[in-house]
Amino acid sequence: MINNLTSEEEDIIASYERDEWQSINNLQEEMHSYRQAAAAWMKKHHTISLTLPEQEFEQFQQKALSKGVSSQTVLMNLIRQFIAS
User: Fold this and answer.
1) pLDDT tens by residue, 9-45
2) Per-residue model confidence as pLDDT tens digits over 62-72
3) How would you write the chain as a 3-class SS string?
4) Which has the closest alpha carbon to 74: 84, 60, 55, 58?
5) Cβ-count burial of 52 within 10 angstroms (0-12 exposed, 13-18 middle, 19+ buried)?
6) What does the alpha-carbon distance between residue 72 and residue 28 come to, in Å, rounded to a whole number?
C-alpha cells in the first residue's frame, strides 16, 4: 500500500479493489465531451499570476488554512469585495 494517502485517496483505492469501477464503452466520446467542457470553462475563466515573498506567502496560506478555506478562495473573495466596493 502507498504511504501518506489522504482518506479520499484511500477510499478510491478501496472502491477500486472492491471492483466497483466499470469501463465505459464510449470512452472516446466521453473524453471529447469532458475536453469540450474544460475548454468552455477556460474561455470563461482567467488565470492571474501573483508573486509574493516566501514569508508573506506562507503566512497568507497558513491564515487561510486556519480559517478552513483555500488561499485561492480568499483571493477570489477579496477581488469580489474590491469590485463590489
Assistant:
1) 999 999 999 999 988 899 999 999 999 999 999 899 8
2) 999 999 999 99
3) CCCCCCHHHHHHHHHHHCCCCCCCCCHHHHHHHHHHHHHHHHHHCCCCCCCCCHHHHHHHHHHHHHCCCCHHHHHHHHHHHHHHC
4) 60
5) exposed
6) 33
| pTM across the whole model | 0.51
CA distance 6 to 39: 29
Q: Could you give the dihedral angle defined by the CA atoms of residues 34, 45, 9 and 23, in that order, rounded to the nearest 10 degrees?
A: 0
Q: Rg of the chain over CA atoms, in angstroms? A: 19
Joined grid coordinates for residue 3: 504511504
